[in-house]
Design goal:
alpha+beta, 5-stranded antiparallel sheet, binds biotin, 6 helices, about 240 residues
Length: about 240
């Protein structure tokens, strides 16, 4: 994978989108000092110090939009989970793509399409992710949701370069196959790490709350919920509360 290292940047996603034309397919833009990171749902992504990873994968699988691209965050979540597992920890995936350990967030993903129009054009996909590698409980306490980091979970300092190499190698391993075959390729790997199946959940979908039992991850990565009247709902997007 090609690499672009930025000493400091406001947001690697923003930078990657601005430079999409000159960036090649399968490039990782990364920094250890991100000053104004953005998360999903217009939240911010905190700068928790320079021993952590703030990165964006630039992908240009083709110049037209395909359904499988919306599953790329789930592909990355499996790659991240497996990379964490190499350190002896047991991460879970909170649908669709948060990575947690014991209910505390350790990594988040923000995907953004560039140059997408109603005729199916797509100039590229920017798959941003942050990984908490080395930080202290005091810093994490200031984040407005339960969070953890790999050094806290393992009791060891984590080499960020080694982590990044493991992650990018693993991403490349099945990426081309994933683009061809879609979510089914990773369905089993994904589903066995999902944390809330067969539990009652409330999901925020465009400011509407959907409540019910999460019963299945479908063949295209959606979440199937059954409500108290036995009605099924298939959610393609949302945030489990
Ligand atoms: C989330 O869980 O809300 C997604 C967080 C994504 C954060 C990463 S850090 C690198 C990249 N640049 C950004 O501005 N955001 C993403």
């Amino acid at each position: 994978m090609r690499r672009v290292y930025l000493e400091t940047v406001d947001s690697t996603n923003k930078w990657a989108k601005e430079h999409i034309a000159e960036l090649e397919d399968k490039t990782i833009v990364y920094t250890y000092n991100q000053t104004s990171g953005r998360g999903r749902l217009n939240r911010k992504w905190n700068n928790i110090g320079t021993d952590n990873i703030y990165a964006s994968l630039v992908l240009k699988p083709s110049d037209k939009m395909e359904e499988v691209y919306s599953n790329l965050t789930q592909y990355l979540s499996v790659v991240l989970a497996k990379t964490f597992e190499e350190y002896g920890v047991t991460p879970n995936i909170k649908w669709p793509n948060d990575i947690q350990i014991n209910g505390k967030k350790i990594s988040g993903i923000l995907a953004e399409g560039v140059g997408i129009n109603n005729y199916g054009r797509c100039d590229g996909i920017v798959l941003g992710f942050g990984v908490n590698l080395n930080t202290s409980p005091e810093i994490l306490e200031k984040i407005n949701q339960p969070a953890t980091s790999l050094n806290i979970e393992t009791g060891k300092k984590i080499d960020k370069e080694k982590f990044l190499k493991k992650l990018t190698d693993r991403f490349c391993l099945l990426y081309d196959k994933f683009i061809e075959e879609g979510f089914l390729l990773i369905k089993e790997d994904y589903t066995k790490r999902v944390s809330f199946l067969n539990k009652n959940v409330s999901v925020n979908v465009f400011d509407k709350i959907v409540t019910g039992k999460a019963i299945e991850i479908t063949d295209n990565g959606a979440l199937k919920i059954v409500d108290k009247n036995n009605n099924e709902q298939i959610l393609f997007i949302g945030d489990i509360l």
